# Entry
Amino acid sequence: MSAYIIRRLLYAIPILIGVNLITFLLFFVVNSPDDMARMQLGEKRVTPEAIQTWKQERGYDRPLLFNQEATGLGKVTDTMFFAKSVRLFAFDFGASDNGRDIGFDIGQRMWPSLAIAVPVLLVGLLVNISLALFIVFFRATYIDYASVVLLVAMMSISGLFYILGGQYLLSKLFHLVPISGYDTGPAAWKFLVLPVIIGVIGGIGTGTRWYRTLFLEEIGKDYVRTARAKGLGERLVLFRHVLRNALIPILTGVVVVLPLLFMGSLITESFFGIPGLGSYTIDAINNQDFAIVRAMVFLGSVLYILGLLLTDLSYTLVDPQVRLG
# Structure
């Protein structure tokens, strides 16, 4: 088991290094610091002196990979690659282009993102699996056919429709919850109810249809027919056998998503004014704050790789064949 974990960790290291190198090339070679300065200062009437000052204030005036003017280790450490790329491996995100501590902002903003993402994941998982089992119970009937049509229709509707429709019905028309905003402490729940409801409803189409496919694939296997031959009822077959044997693909979807919960939802947080990491990223893109965008790209890569690692480890808990193999 320990050898399996170590092997998976070793697989993740070169992937993360490759993502980091690609990010560095995109931000500092393809899009040079001079280009960043021109976008921030404006193309018109920008002088070389203004560009140089902007670069010096943000530490973008160092050499890219090797500093010939420095001495000792400074030849390598006093470079753009070490300051802006290597230090990310220690989760030292540095300061944003406007001078704020990116690590502090991430620590503050991840909690509103989790306050939305975790309930959406847990409630959505319960709702989608329950609906999928209900549809499979009535498979090959009009309930099944009508449900598939409805699920495909829900999949085809943009998430913006659910957001705008929910804001209009529950906030503007019935005045049940605030239309947007956020508060700290216990009072935050009233601002989170609507985004959570919309997040769950918006995921029913895709989630339920996927789980229905998994359960239908399992229900046609030999062990299910054997269970029926022993006299087990359809409900026991679904919950005791089909659901348990479908845990591996379910875990694949759930465990991969878990680390990405920290990243927040770009659209939901922007429309509801939630100060999470999703809106943090959108604001950085709009303000052309390249330091924040670069940090969020790296953090998202780390969390995604962590999700894949957790998925592999969860397989060993659910499927003994993976552990023994």
Observations:
- DSSP finds 17 helices and no strands in the chain.
- The chain has a mean pLDDT of 86.
